[in-house]
Amino acid sequence: KEEVNIISGALDLRKKTVNDVMTKLEDVFMLPINSILDFETMSDIVKSVGSGAHQDHRLNVRLLAGYSRIPVYEGNRSNIVTVLFTKDLAFVDPDDNTALRTLCKYYQNPCNFVFEDVTLDVMLKQFKEGHKGHMAFVQRIKREGDSDPVYETIGLVTLEDVIEEMIQAEIVDE
Ligand code: ADP
């Protein structure tokens, strides 16, 4: 019985897309690249909770520990240029007022992009093979008339979102 549920959860991954499980861009905790890593910014990062529905079931753990990865954008929130790992802040002294741009240039963490219609089984496979970490930014293609397509970032998806979908399917099917 249990095996059947797990298999059914795994099979359901083929029916759902990253768009179905992603955290929407407006709910993503991110930082502009021109931020200064002063005391205020650093405590915002450590306390980052976000406002998305995803947080509701995460109990109070979120209140103690912020996100482990923070997207960094330049200008517009949909223009994500890199990711800050909060562990990279370990040697940053808030009194130094370090520019986030300097830290980002040093680490140069790559971003992983994925189209919104990618199914969760494909996403899971990609995360497993992943050399770019277990987070991807979800993109949509915007076509206007005959002009070249424009890519728009609409959210982020992590390995946890995919696994959660698998486990939920298993519980609901009970
Ligand atoms: P973490 O490692 O920070 O705990 P997870 O990969 O476990 O993050 O993801 C937990 C949930 O939080 C997922 O639903 C994911 O989409 C969301 N998430 C991850 N990073 C952020 C962020 N910077 N802002 C908003 N939501 C995020």
Overall description:
It is built from seven helices and nine strands, in the order ααβββααβββαβαββα. It has 174 residues and is an alpha/beta fold. It has a four-stranded mixed sheet. The protein has a three-stranded mixed sheet with strand order 2-4-5, with helices on one face. Strand 4 (69-73) and strand 5 form a beta hairpin. Helix 1 packs across helix 7. The radius of gyration is 18 Å and the shape is globular. It starts with a helix and ends with a helix. Mean pLDDT is 86; it is low at 51-64. Adenosine-5'-diphosphate is lined by residues 23, 27-29, 50, 52, 54, 67-71, 156, 158, 160-161.
Strand content: 15-25%
Ions, cofactors and other ligands present here are:
adenosine-5'-diphosphate
What class, by secondary structure content?
alpha/beta
Low-confidence stretches: 51-64
The counted number of beta strands is 9
Radius of gyration: 18 Å
